[in-house]
Specification:
Length: 266
């Protein structure tokens, strides 16, 4: 087995991490993944050598106040913060731990750049590569509002303004995806699967986690944003999502995640 080209530390499962693992599966890059469910990461040392805290570890010098998505105290080394200046996960590292790569889209880009052979995942030329980048950039606007919305749902504190921002971000993003797939395109960029498709599938899979909080929405008298009406409003986008989720490179990551959501929402 080849030595890992990247080590990635993250909470698990994480559809945004799937951007990297799907790309790695498609272009022959070996990854080392470390992590645990979100609630367990408070008992981990956040470092290149990330691991559950042992006896005597977790002293005051590594204690940091938690931010987005976490609460309480986390334990992050100075080396971790030097490599990961925003202190978030997923956090990727070069094999020697000296170079950190942060943000899930950038980590996925790094995977493709590390491919041992030529791949079309980043387009065929500077123009299509830039078009891939454009889709990845557009996904960030959607992803930011979606993350705020999902965190508020998880905490049971979602309010109409947050719900409305998420709805507007959802509609803007899916309208663009729908247009890009017209009139009968199979992929977002060119005639082959690219990072644009991978990122789209991962972000929409994460957004579908709203389904786990239907009771919170009902209590707040808010309508679901991920429901059957999306297929009517954005048929090409949702059909593309379904096809991608059935792809052999996608199912190991997105399949179990979506099946768990389906099981919670029969």
């Amino acid at each position: 087995m080849n030595a890992p080209a990247l080590r990635i530390f993250s909470y698990l499962p994480n559809p945004r991490l799937a951007k990297a693992t799907i790309a790695a599966r498609l272009c022959g890059v070996t990854l080392e993944i470390r992590g645990a469910p979100p609630r367990e990461l408070a008992r981990w040392l956040w470092d290149f050598d990330a691991h559950p805290l042992g006896d005597g570890e977790g002293a005051g010098e590594t204690a940091r106040g938690a931010r987005t998505g976490f609460s309480g105290t986390l334990h992050k080394t100075d080396a971790f913060l030097a490599a990961q200046p925003f202190g978030a996960v997923p956090a990727a590292f070069s094999p020697d731990g000296k170079v950190g790569v942060f943000e899930s889209n950038a980590i996925a880009r790094a995977v493709v750049r590390l491919a041992p052979e030529r791949t079309r995942l980043y387009g065929d030329d500077p123009y299509t590569a830039s078009r891939v980048d454009a889709f990845l950039d557009a996904s960030l606007v959607f992803a930011r509002d979606a993350q705020v919305y999902l965190l508020k749902l998880a905490s049971g504190s979602v309010k109409p303004p947050t719900h409305e921002r998420a709805r507007a971000a959802r509609d803007a993003y899916l309208t663009g995806i729908e247009q890009a797939l017209a009139p009968a395109r199979s992929f977002l960029v060119g005639d082959a699967l690219t990072l644009a498709d991978i990122v789209f599938a991962a972000e929409l899979a994460l957004f579908s986690a709203e389904r786990a909080s239907r009771r919170v929405l009902e209590a707040a008298s808010l309508r679901p944003l991920y429901d059957d009406s999306l297929r009517e409003a954005h048929p090409r986008a949702l059909a593309h999502f379904a096809q991608l989720c059935a792809h052999p490179a996608f199912t190991p990551d997105l399949g179990p995640y979506l099946e768990k959501l389906d099981g919670r929402n029969p």
